[in-house]
Amino acid sequence: MRTRQILCPTDFSKTASHALSYAIEMANLYGVNLRLVHVMSEPFSEYHYGIAVESVEQLDLQIESAADENLDKLKSQVQQELNHGLAVQTVLRKGDTLDQILEEAEVGEIGMIVIASHGRQGIAHLLNPNISEALANKAKCPVLVVK
Q1: How far apart are CA 81 and CA 67, in angstroms?
Q2: Which helix (H) or strand (E) is 12 found in, with range?
Q3: Which residue has the higher pLDDT, 2 or 61?
Q4: Percent of residues, the chain, with pLDDT higher than 90
Q5: Closest CA to 113 of 91, 144, 70
Q6: What would be the CATH architecture of the domain defined by 5-146?
Q7: What is the pLDDT confidence band of residue 50, given thresholds at 50, 70 and 90?
Q8: Cβ neighbours for 143, distance < 8 A, ≥ 6 positions apart
Q9: Where along the chain do its domains lie?
C-alpha cells in the first residue's frame, strides 16, 4: 500500500466528493499519488427515447466532453490539497462501472480504493446496483467505503 497509488472512482456527486476528501487525506498520510477515475456507462439504449441529438456519436462526444471537463476541474482542486511532490492523475473509462474500476485497479497498480456509497436502502437498494459493495467483495486490494 505504501508504494502504490490510491484509486478514487467518482460520479461527480456530493457523496463522491466526500469520499475524495478521504482519498486525499490517505494519499497525504501515505505519501502516494492519487488516481481519479470516472466511468461513462451507456445511459441509453440505441433508441434514446426521444432525446434530441444529431446522432448517437454526437451524444457520446457531449457526455465525454462534460466528463473530461469535470475531471479537469477536480484534478486542479485536488492537486492544491495534495502534499508537495504528490500527483493526481485522471482516467476516463467507458463500459460497465464495476468491471472498469476493477480493471483500472489492476493496470494502475493500485494499493487502495476509496469509494463513496450512496447508502440506498430498501427498494432503492434492490433497483440500483451497489457498486461499492460489489467492489469491496471483488477487489484484490483494500477498499474504503465512505458514506
Answers
A1: 21
A2: none
A3: 61
A4: 69
A5: 144
A6: 3-Layer(aba) Sandwich (3.40)
A7: low
A8: 112, 113, 114, 115, 132, 135, 136
A9: 5-146
